[in-house]
Amino acid sequence: MTFNSRVMLAAFVAALLLTTVGFAAQAQTAKKEATSKRVAIRAGRLIDGKSDSAIPNAVILIEGDKIVSVTPGGAAPAGVETIDLSKATVMPGFADVHTHVVLNGDITAEDYDAQLLKESIPYRAILGARNAKIALDHGFTSIRDLETEGAMYADVDVKTAIANGEVPGPRMQVATRAMTPTGMYGPLGYSWELKVPQGVEYVDGVDGARKAVREQIMYGADWIKYYSDRKYHFEADGVLHSMVNFTDEEAKAIVDETHRLGKKVAAHCIGSDGIAAALRAGVDTVEHGDGLTDAEIDEIARRGIYWVPTITVGAYVAPGRGGNWTKMVDLEKTAFQKALKKNVKIALGTDAGGFDWKEVNQAKEFEYYVDYGMTPLQALRTGTTVAAELLGWSDKVGTVEAGKWADLVAVSGDPLKDITEVERVKFVMKAGVVYKNELR
Question: What is the pTM of this model?
Fold first, then answer.
């Protein structure tokens, strides 16, 4: 490295450190101020996550990071700072329960492999922090990140940095490294002489499954995720089939050990065979689920299992992947409409990271749900109250009421009349701190 190059690199690092330190100082100051500060928000319309219609002219009183009271038609107490959102619609902060903050689009295997082979884990973690900020700007104050795609435990680091106020972002639950048996996930096809990064943790056998669960939880996993299937294809019966990855004994060991340690399991399962295997194993959430059959829909409804459809990512990648992917998107629409009629617990998840965070607003998922048959209010609840239940945070988030964290978003229009309003969030508050306000 030349002298000038070293000087330029040193200047860049110094600037980055100053920016990071500057934000951290601002965040810590805001956090301290929010600890005891009282703020009143005047909402023109409030969709509180509980009521069947919007509440007009509500006043939300906040102290520190919690909501103290919600008063329809009320007045702000004297001497309390007031944020005027009287021309806006206020809602609970959104939750996306299927993201990948350290991934930035993987339409093709080449897109995916380039990130694992050419980008260091520290660099990907930096992009993960950037993506978390994008999510927060879009109104997502909580996310569940379902694996790092080869970046080891970097999601734990991003979560910790946000929790410590070092960088802005949603509060997170993380799954660290997803699991498959050896050889059943990319990158694949490289010379056996090369040691390439693995996109997941390879897990074999019952003992290996239990050990992997224990290791991931030791390093900070809130959830365990595994890939139930691959190689999706249609057969003469018209059902979307798939190749199941784990033996039933291995999958059950993953689920049993996770539950024994007080955590929950998310299963990637797209084809009907993979879904059936995941249900036999006893998973807590079904991710994707394009090939859900009538019998499987009945079972997940009966057992109260959450379904996270991730429609946005399927629609985004289908044109570039070709093959059966377009047909799979159409199939999932049919499954969604059946599941809706049978009261399946549908929680909003987008698979952000499967699409580039800078290209698609996660809130697009709400629009798909309305297009597929939900009312706007039902769709909003998938990303607020239902998502909060899935996360185990119903006592903290998901509704606007006394005792909950002060996580609020606002839009100019009325999303009960036009659901696309949620794709234009103008105000974001998380834990009593305002991170965005374009409604002044």
Answer: 0.92
Q: To 5 degrees, how large is the angle CA 188–CA 193–CA 197?
A: 45
Q: Do residues 325 and 106 lie in contact, with contact meaning Cβ atoms separated by under 8 Å?
A: no
What value, to the nearest 5°, has the Cα angle with vertex 68 and ends 62 and 71? Answer: 95
Both tokens assigned to 81: 């700072």
Q: Cα(45)–Cα(130) distance, rounded to whole angstroms?
A: 31
State the number of CA atoms in the 13 A half-sphere of 57 facing the CB: 3
**CA atoms within 13 A of residue 383's CA, in its CB half-sphere:** 38
Q: Smallest Cα–Cα separation from 339: which of 398, 290, 381?
A: 290
Tokens of 42: 């005047």
Report the C-alpha gap between 419 and 109 in whole angstroms.
34
Residue 64 CB neighbours (<10 A): 17
Kindly report each contact of residues 218-221 with a partner whose C-beta sits within 8 Å and lies 24 or more positions away, as own/partner: 219/153, 219/156, 219/176, 220/153, 220/156, 220/159, 220/174, 220/176, 221/156, 221/174, 221/175, 221/176, 221/263
Q: Hey, what's the torsion of the CAs at 276, 281, 282, 286, to 10 degrees?
A: -50
Query: 62: which strand partners?
Result: 39, 67
At 290-340, the pLDDT tens digits run 999 999 999 999 999 999 999 999 999 999 999 999 999 999 999 999 999
H or E element, residue 63: strand 55-63
Residue 296 identity? E
Q: How far apart are the first and last CA of the chain?
A: 49
CB-based contacts of 258: which residues, under 8 Å, 6+ apart? Answer: 213, 217, 224, 264, 265
